[in-house]
Design goal:
homotrimer; mainly alpha; Four Helix Bundle (Hemerythrin (Met), subunit A); 6 helices; about 0% strand; acetylation (chains A, B, C)
Chain lengths: ~160, ~160, ~160
Amino acid sequence: RRGEMAKLTQLIDNEVFRAYATYSAIVLLKMMLMSLITTYFRITRKAFANPEDTATFGKGESAKKYLKTDPDVERVRRCHLNDLENIVPFVGIGLLYALSGPELSTALLHFRIFAGARIFHTFAYLIPLPQPGRGLSFAVGYSVTFSMAYKVLKTAWLL
Amino acid sequence: RRGEMAKLTQLIDNEVFRAYATYSAIVLLKMMLMSLITTYFRITRKAFANPEDTATFGKGESAKKYLKTDPDVERVRRCHLNDLENIVPFVGIGLLYALSGPELSTALLHFRIFAGARIFHTFAYLIPLPQPGRGLSFAVGYSVTFSMAYKVLKTAWLL
Amino acid sequence: RRGEMAKLTQLIDNEVFRAYATYSAIVLLKMMLMSLITTYFRITRKAFANPEDTATFGKGESAKKYLKTDPDVERVRRCHLNDLENIVPFVGIGLLYALSGPELSTALLHFRIFAGARIFHTFAYLIPLPQPGRGLSFAVGYSVTFSMAYKVLKTAWLL
């Protein structure tokens, strides 16, 4: 088992793969943070989706008024869904990109810009900042993933 | 090609990676099951989102009444979305964790608790069980992914 | 670093892994395309979800009328969510499948059918085609992922 371990850890010892692992973990944790922010707004705005979640606030009819949508909760949920739509392709394509043998500096440039763009996107969505702030940060992250996909397809192409 | 195959299968022969592959496949299949449950409730509750899906039940105006939302359908859809928000980070971070060289026993502990928590979460959401059943199972799964992310960042950190 | 690189590129030189990388990148790019189609419909239908997105069309009360849902926008969003629910399991299980040592011809058969089914699914959803066109393409993609999961669990099983 030790021998196999050694072979496996060769992957995590590779610098490009370490950079990929670091940035992937960071953007996935950022995405997971949206769940906690949703819960925070659901509790402070008293706006829930499930009857069983309102039981703390009263019984029967008096609890039903907390089954509602709230603009702040819906905003966080849209931001969370946007993360799923953009961070998931980054993690999938980024893994293939890291295995396609890019230069460390080029890879770091891609990962740093993507992570920065998505963190800015979250602030732009939640504050909210006036457009085109959010739109541009979406476009920057999108372009980084597209650029990595181009390198993957150029290296791996086998239909 | 055989020679390369041999190298590749070293990964799947590693016990930690085999455990990761097993639990990842199980939780992804569990997530996919939500699609079938949604379809089941859409058909039995006759509640559809697309006009073309109601054609079986009549033509023109008579079919329009089946374009509606149903509480049971919406509940399954929320459960499915919650799976996407939690199982996807587990699969992504879990892969990096499996490659970061954890002890087999520690890795199995993480994977088993996560899979158990998410299967319980589905029952808690669909039955539904009174809170904090669902909330706690969400928190347990969340903590497992967070713990794996900590190990990944500690091992791979390269910004 | 060069030495490690060489080991890494062994993975991307493997034909099954190259096929997986190609088809994964293609279906993830197809999924990302849904964001652009949503934006296109939001602008042409003038139907936005965030007040700050309507600022181009006027100030104050006159901009509020563009905060609405539109059937075409909602249709693209449902198609995008369906992609997340189906393409994400394909990418995750497909990676494990590619590492489980399948024959190249068998792997290519799986990847080609899945990609074809999901591209057809998008057209069936957006045109829209009468059922069961969309339903069948969903079922075909679903079955491919299920078949790959079966191979993964048979090869890797370790609970």
